Amino acid sequence: MGVFKYSPVDFLFTCLGLVFLVLDIGLDILAVVNFYQEEFYVCLGILLLFLVGSSVLVQAFSWLWYSYEDYKRETTVEKCLSLNQLRLLHVLQLGIYFRHAGVVEVSLRSFFTRIDCSEDVAVYLSHDLSMLRLIETFSESSPQLVLMLTIILQRGELDPVTVLKAIGSTSAIACSVTMYHRSLRSFLPEKEKQQFISSVVYFFWNLFLISSRLAALALFASVLPCFIFAHFFGSWLVLFFFVWRSETDFMSSPSGEWLYRATVGLIWYFDWFNVVEGKTRYRTLLYHGYILGDIFLLCGLWCWKMSTDPPYFKMSPSYAMITAACVIAVYISGLGLKMIYYKFYHPNLAKEQLKGDTIEESPAGRDEPDFVMPKGANVSGYNIPQPTETTVSDRFMPSSPQPEIKRCNKRMRKLAENFYS
């Protein structure tokens, strides 16, 4: 099993993630107060729905992962709370911030002491945190960005709070996508390590695809706001059906797996996400064909509405066509970057070649406990023979060294298998 290293760059991204988290909370509060003061109660209700819904979803995953590990806690911050206090913390929607504190603690310990055990735990916890941040990105930041862009389009002007919130959501998306890719890369063997340029191409491919998708949704919602929820629900049902047909195996309980599938359907509404191992070329082509067709439809409806009955401000048909064409061109450019990434920078590996094991500990190689059964002892109806003689030299012979067990995040390793296989 390969050794996981917690590099200074990982430490930097952990600190950046914490900074963006604090800024995002401040901007959320600012946006809520601003909508309330301006009496935009519909926007306020939608924003609160995104905030509360995303928080409940992330806390549910965090608590389930604690339960799958028998509530094992590695850091001093985590150990200071009892199990009931930890459960209460998740009910109060504070579990994710508790995880952040634990990651920061062990990251500082690893960064300044360079203890292998601390590095191992730091990587393990950062993997869970990067997945939780990714879920938060597509359940909160992406919908919020669509909402802010819709408000800007409807007003026809740039409100400072709305612009700041849009920038904050964009930064959160960029940070979480980058952290997720670094978590996947940590499972690559040393000889297959990807170059920095691969992360740049990965980042821009996702940036183009996500920004184009969000822009198309915002354009549609700005002219037909009542239909955007029907569009989301209908698309989510289709995507959820395909996730279910993929027979995912990510969580450790049936209820958790259904929650994961529903969440993947939500993520797919905005961007592609590998959920099964093996060749996914045809599934990816089908997905991007579906999303590209949907973007065509959304932009086409926006152009039609702006040309025939503009709801807020007039725009010439030529400008509307150019805007829609730019949105579609950005998505196609993202597909081109994705093909470049898979052609030149993406290593295809079998799951056995990745670092880590699918189980944390292997029974093979463990030292059996040294004990001597009483003579003539009977266990479950079987007579246990007593060794005839044990010499002093045998008793003090050095045993074979116990293999060093490194912690491996099984959930993130499954995602790495899906991505690199």
Rounded to the nearest angstrom, the distance between the terminal CA atoms is: 18 Å
- The sequence of SSEs as H and E is HHHHHHHHHHHHEEHH
Strand order, sheet with most strands: 1-2
Q: Spans with pLDDT under 50 lasting ≥5 residues?
A: 359-405
Beta-strand fraction estimate: under 5%
What class would the helix/strand composition place it in? mainly alpha
Got a strand count? 2
Question: What is the gist of this entry?
Answer:
This protein is mostly helical. It has helices at residues 8-37, 41-68, 76-79, 83-91, 95-113, 116-155, 160-185, 196-223, 228-245, 254-268, 281-308, 317-344, 392-395, 410-420; strands at residues 378-379, 382-383.
Structure description:
The chain has 421 residues and is mostly helical. 68% of the residues lie in helices and 1% in strands. It is built from 14 helices and two strands; from the N terminus they run H-H-H-H-H-H-H-H-H-H-H-H-E-E-H-H. It has helices spanning 8-37, 41-68, 76-79, 83-91, 95-113, 116-155, 160-185, 196-223, 228-245, 254-268, 281-308, 317-344, 392-395, 410-420, and strands spanning 378-379, 382-383. It has a two-stranded antiparallel sheet with strand order 1-2. Strand 1 and strand 2 (382-383) form a beta hairpin. Helix 5 (95-113) crosses helix 6. It starts with 7 loop residues before the first helix and ends with a helix. The relative contact order is 0.11. Mean pLDDT is 80; it is low at 359-405.
